[in-house]
Write a structure and sequence with these properties.
Structural class: alpha+beta
Largest sheet: 8 strands, mixed
CATH topology: Glutamine Phosphoribosylpyrophosphate, subunit 1, domain 1
Number of strands: 12
Shape: globular
CATH architecture: 4-Layer Sandwich
Helix content: 25-40%
Radius of gyration: 18 Å
Bound molecules: aspartic acid
Order of helices and strands: HEHHEEHEHHEEEEHHHEEEE
Strand order of the largest sheet: 4-3-2-6-5-1-11-12
Number of helices: 9
CATH class: Alpha Beta
Strand content: 15-25%
Number of domains: 1
Length: about 350
C-alpha cells in the first residue's frame, strides 16, 4: 500500500512536470544536424558469458536499429519517428527485453511497458502492463495521438488497442523465449534461497533518443520490465520523467532497477540539471546515474542527447548494450566499458 502511494504520488508530480513550460529561456537550436543514441538495456553480462555469435548478433541488431532511426532523420523526418523506428527493430529482436523476448513475470506471463515523448511539444504517450500488444511503443504513440490521455494501463489499454486496427495483437505466449524462461527459473531459485526476497533481475530494456534536422529532440523506452516481477508491477519505462523524458533541449531513456528510477525521477532530473543549472549533458547524466541512483541503492544506466547533438551513455552496472550516431556521422555500438 505504501509503495502504491509512493508510486502514485511520484506519478502525480510527473504530471505537473509534463505540463510545465520550458524551464529557462533557450537559444535557438542549430538546425540541420541529426544525432541518434539507442540502448538495449543495462545490467551485468560478464564478457565470457556471451558467445562470439551472441556478441556479433547483438552488435548487428543495434546497427539495424541505428539504421532504421537514422534513415528517418537523414530524410528529414521527425525525431519522434526516428525513436519509434529504432525501438521497433529492438522490440522485434528476441535478444532484448521488449516485445519478442520480453522477460517473464512471477506468474509466468509477460506484461509490457512503454512510453515516448516529443520535447518541443511536450506531447507524451505511455502504456503499462499490456499483454497482447506486439509493439507497445506503437500503442504508446497511439495513446499520445488518438486519445486525450498520456498513460493507459492493463485491460483499459488493451481495450483501447481494440479500437486501433493498426495495432497488431498476439497471444501472450508469442513473447516467450527459452532464455527468458531459464532466467525466470534462476531468479525464482535465487529468490527462494534468499528467503523470498525479490532479487532485482533486469536486462535488455530498449530505448532511443533522437535529434532531428529541425533541432527537435524525442525519447522513448520499451520493456518487459524485470524478471520475476510481481503480477501488476509497473516499472519506470512508462513513467514520463522516470524512464523517459524529452524537452526542447534534452532527451533521456533510462534502463535499470526501475523503482529507483521512479523515486529519483531520473530522466527528468538529468534534463532539469541541463535546463536549470546549465550543467553539460555529460555532467548531468553522470551525476544522476553514477551518484544519485547508486547512493539510493539502485543501479542501471541511461542514454541522453541534447540539441547540440552531444551524447551521454553512463551506466554503473558493468555493461549496457548501446549504439550512437553523432552529428558528424561517426557511429558505433558497444556492450562493455572498454569497447
Ligand atoms: N527499468 C526497467 C524496469 O524496471 C528494467 C530495465 O531497464 O531493464 O522495468
Amino acid at each position: 500500500m505504501r509503495r502504491m502511494f509512493l508510486l502514485l504520488s511520484v506519478m502525480s508530480s510527473m504530471v505537473v512536470a509534463t505540463t510545465a513550460r520550458a524551464e529557462a529561456p533557450s537559444t535557438a537550436p542549430a538546425p540541420g544536424r541529426t544525432a541518434l543514441v539507442i540502448h538495449g538495456g543495462a545490467g551485468f553480462v560478464p564478457k565470457d558469458a556471451l558467445s562470439e555469435e551472441d556478441t556479433r548478433d547483438i552488435h548487428a541488431t543495434l546497427d539495424r536499429a541505428l539504421d532504421a532511426g537514422n534513415e528517418v532523420l537523414t530524410s528529414g523526418g521527425a525525431a519522434l519517428d526516428a525513436v519509434q523506428a529504432a525501438i521497433r527493430v529492438l522490440e522485434e529482436s528476441p535478444r532484448f527485453n521488449a516485445g519478442k523476448g520480453a522477460v517473464f513475470n512471477a506468474v509466468g506471463g509477460h506484461e509490457l511497458d512503454a512510453s515516448l515523448m516529443e520535447g518541443h511539444t511536450r506531447r507524451a504517450g505511455a502504456v503499462a502492463g499490456v499483454t497482447t500488444v506486439r509493439s507497445p511503443i506503437l500503442l504508446a504513440r497511439a495513446v499520445m495521438e488518438h486519445s486525450p490521455h498520456v498513460m493507459m494501463a492493463g485491460a483499459g489499454a488493451e481495450a483501447f488497442a481494440d479500437t486501433r486496427p493498426d495495432i497488431e495483437r498476439v497471444d501472450n505466449s508469442w513473447f516467450d523465449t527459452d532464455h527468458r524462461r531459464r532466467a525466470l527459473e534462476q531468479a525464482q531459485q535465487a529468490s527462494a534461497a534468499a528467503g523470498g526476497d525479490d532479487a532485482p533481475a533486469y536486462f535488455g530494456t530498449v530505448g532511443a533518443v533522437a535529434l532531428d534536422r529541425e533541432g527537435h529532440v524525442a525519447a522513448g523506452t520499451s520493456t518487459g520490465g524485470m524478471t520475476n516481477k510481481r503480477f501488476g508491477r509497473v516499472g519506470d519505462a512508462p513513467v514520463i520523467g522516470a524512464g523517459t523524458w524529452a524537452d526542447d533541449r534534452c532527451g533521456v531513456s533510462g534502463t535499470g532497477w526501475g523503482e529507483f528510477y521512479i523515486r529519483n525521477a531520473v530522466a527528468h532530473d538529468i534534463c532539469a540539471r541541463v535546463a536549470y543549472r546549465g550543467d553539460s549533458l555529460a555532467e548531468a547524466a553522470d551525476e544522476v546515474v553514477n551518484r544519485i541512483v547508486p547512493d539510493a541503492g539502485g543501479d542501471g544506466g541511461a542514454i541522453a542527447l541534447d540539441r547540440e547533438g552531444n551524447i551521454a551513455m553512463p551506466f554503473n552496472s558493468g555493461s549496457m548494450f548501446r549504439g550512437w550516431i553523432r552529428p558528424d556521422g561517426s557511429r558505433g555500438t558497444a556492450i562493455h566499458e572498454a569497447d
